Amino acid sequence: MRSRERGGVMGGQVVQQVRRFYDGGTLPHDGRPGEPPDPGADPRIVLERHAEEGVETFALERRLAYLDRHLGELLVPADTGFRTDLTSVPALFTWLVPKTGAHLPAALLHDALVGGSHDPSSYVSTDGHVVDRVAADRTFRDAMADTGTGVIRRWIVWTAVTVATIFVGRDVPWSRARHWSYRFAAGATIVAILYLGYSSTSDLFDRSWLGAVDVPWMGDRPWWAEVAGGLSGAIVLPLALSLLWGRLRMAGAIAGVMLAVLLHVTVGLAAIGATYMALERLARRSPGAAWMLAGLVVAAALVVFALVSFG
């Protein structure tokens, strides 16, 4: 049965097979024997919430089982001490990839496979296959397909975990030279896109910001032509830079285009988030000053509203 089910790939694309996820039973605990996995039962995600040093994490009360196309059966977590924050997404990007949703079983599977900084760096499948971090990232992408996660979202998420693997992954199946070549390519891509985005913004507002250079795809044109040129550059240039990534060029292309296209959105959201955090801290430490600041903001808004509306 398993050998038959390890297909599900057509034309290089993973075909959704929801039954690859099933109930993984339970681990032995407190002297009680655990329950074996049941391939005929739907997966049951039972979470126990923990608050550790102000950080919300969850323990899995039941194991998840997943039948991978290459590695065979994966049963997670491997021990009762496992903790997860669900889908590990920075707060700035939860609008794009929420903490939970159709992709949650795949996210929990990936969290358990890669472990934390103090956990074992690899996982061994039921069939005896060692699952390193690169294999875990690929498994994550395939598992998201099996949960019905959209194509675009799962490739974006796979790119994010691949970039994390490049910079912080342990025991990856690459030589030291290849690993550093990937790090150089990723770092060079990020720096180049940030600098060109800064220069393009300077060009758009017709300002000569410190260190900015003129970008030929924008130039001295009508604003709409400069915006169109900037958008084209945000696609073409990252694609060119992705060639530095070698075998990971797909991740390089997706990461580069996403960073370039969403650069200003990300900066704006970061500014809003930082302002909110600063106001929360002020309200907690000095409520009087917070009320005073709120009053000043309202008064300034009233003055500006009157001036703009009534001249």
Describe the protein's topology.
Elements lengths: L1 H4 L3 E2 L2 E2 L6 E3 L23 E6 L2 E6 L3 E5 L3 E5 L27 H11 L8 E2 L5 E2 L1 H14 L4 H18 L7 H29 L18 H19 L7 H13 L1 H23 L1 H24 L1
Antiparallel strand pairs: 1-2, 3-6, 4-5, 6-7, 8-9
Give short descriptive properties of this protein.
single chain, 311 residues, mainly alpha, 3 domains, two-stranded antiparallel sheet, 9 helices
* Biggest sheet strand line-up: 3-6-7
Strand tally, please?
Answer: 9
Main beta-sheet strand count, sense and barrel state: 3 strands, antiparallel
Fraction of helical residues: 40-55%
Kindly estimate the percentage of residues that lie in beta strands according to DSSP. 5-15%
Rg for CA atoms: 24 Å
Number of helices: 9
Structure in words:
Helix 2 packs antiparallel against helix 3. The strands form four sheets. This protein has a three-stranded antiparallel β-sheet, covered by helices on one side. The protein has a two-stranded antiparallel sheet with strand order 1-2. The protein folds into three domains: 2-168, no CATH class; 176-261, no CATH class; 266-310. It starts with a helix and ends with a helix. It has nine helices and nine strands. Helices cover 50% and strands 11% of the residues. With 311 residues, it is mainly alpha-helical.
